Amino acid sequence: MSRELRSVTTAFRREIKLALKRPADIWLSVGFAVLVTMLFGIALGGSPNKLAAAGPAVLFTTLLLASFLAVSRMFAEDLEDGSLDQMLISPSSLTAILYGKVLAFWCLHGLSLVLATPILALLLRLDMDQLPLLLLTCTIVTLGLNLLGLVGAALTVRLRAGAMLLALIVLPLMVPLLVFGLGAVMSASQGESGIAGLALAAAETLLLLALAPAAAALGLRITSE
User: Fold this and answer.
1) Cβ neighbourhood burial of 77 (10 Å; 0-12, 13-18, 19+)
2) What pLDDT digit, counting tens, does each position of 107-123 carry?
3) Which pTM does this prediction carry?
């Protein structure tokens, strides 16, 4: 096993162990998503036709908000307990460490939102025949959102108004990914192929997977100087 891969797996295991000691953080994202979905349903009057029409947009908006809520705390505890400084001076590749961190973060937070998608779809009266496409799209979109959040959190972790700046930096960048995922689901709901939107979402996520950890590592080093 190469040194970089060992750094990735070590960071992944560490993040999983630490997060399992705080299971409430994971349930917070899921609970927030369910609550927001229910509020949207109430605002739309509970009409099945209105829910079916607006459901995909509501679902992806909910995923964006829940993902942002999670990533806003991505480095907070590392900063508080000194782990962040240890990452910066570690002989291991910081980029590799961040790969492990973001993949573990997605497994805990992003994947939990994906697993909650059937519940959200039922609340929004979505066509359950589209559930496989919906799950695949949500998997791709949540991973991309977490990668964008990694970069934003790295740039703002040491700033006093970090949460506000994180929103200004990350939310506009999350919108294209949201649009691609929504386009795939909306096209499928109209009897068309959703492959174009799905391919665009997958392409952006793969690009982020290649670039985001290195960009986040650079951001952490810049903000620590």
Assistant:
1) middle
2) 998 999 999 999 988 88
3) 0.90
